[in-house]
Amino acid sequence: MQSKVIKPIGLLNVNKEAPKFTVSLHSPAMDLAHFIEHYWVVHWDLRGQEPHLQESLPHPSVHLVFEQDNSRVVGVIKGRFSILLREQGAVFGVKFRPGAYYPFLNRPVSAITNRTVSFENVFGMSSQALEHQLFAQETPEQMIPFAEFFIRERLPEPDSHVDLINTIIQCVISDRSIIKVEDIVKRFSIPIRQLQLLFRQYVGISPKWMIQRYRLHEAVEKMTNRDIPDWSKLALDLGYYDQAHFIKDFKSIIGKSPEEYTKLLGE
Asked: Up-side HSE of residue 227: CA atoms within 13 Å toward CB?
């Protein structure tokens, strides 16, 4: 099973300090790959240190998150996501492929967009036994079989719409010329209303939001790598009418203007 310690795309406020935590990503078993993009495990040890507020720009994915006494399902978060890390701890997460949580939920995923739902409310059972099993293990590789057994017991039939959605998303990621919903409509010959309904029902967000989020990921990565973008060109690449509208939205999502955020990274 492949795993590696990395800095995932979407982390915010990454500066020159020593990392406050580690993240490892792990591939699912082949029979679960239609539904699951990867597992992620976060460890931190801040004993004797100040708590650390970590923020990120989420992807268009639903997550099943296991944390001691706080397991939950997290819908797509449209703004930035924040978590305060204290003392010592670990979290085990299941990142579903975009659209792949719909067969489990069997109702529009937009119902949980910007929402966190407790494990007990979703599955009708306590999470304590599974949490105990997971966090009693010494390595992520030992944790994964317990999570996969739980998911297999509830596994729905594969849904062809999931593959279509992920093909569209991979096309958006790899082809930077796609900056408008109409570009997807032309590329895949899908009526715009059908495309919008598909994303609202399966992914929980609009295709326009999806395009802008991946372009914004690119912008943040460039800034993190000290590769300062041409703001006017970037605004056009993100589908904005002008630079002013881009800066306004960037600040509303990131909490700082592009220039302020760039200066923060250099501190």
From this structure: 7
Q: Three-state SS for 139?
A: coil
CA distance 247 to 266: 19
Can you tell me the distance from the alpha carbon of 214 to that of 251, in angstroms, rounded to the nearest whole number?
16
DSSP notation for 216-250: HHHHHHHHHTT----HHHHHHHTT-SSHHHHHHHH
* Per-residue tokens: 234: 């970037």
Return the pLDDT at 137.
96
Residue 82 CB: number of other CB atoms within 10 A? 12
**Its pTM surpasses 0.85:** yes
Question: Residue 122's closest CA among 151, 164, 163?
Answer: 151
Residue 101: alpha-carbon gap to chain centroid = 13
Distance of CA 100 to the CA centre of its chain: 13
Residue 6: the pLDDT is: 45
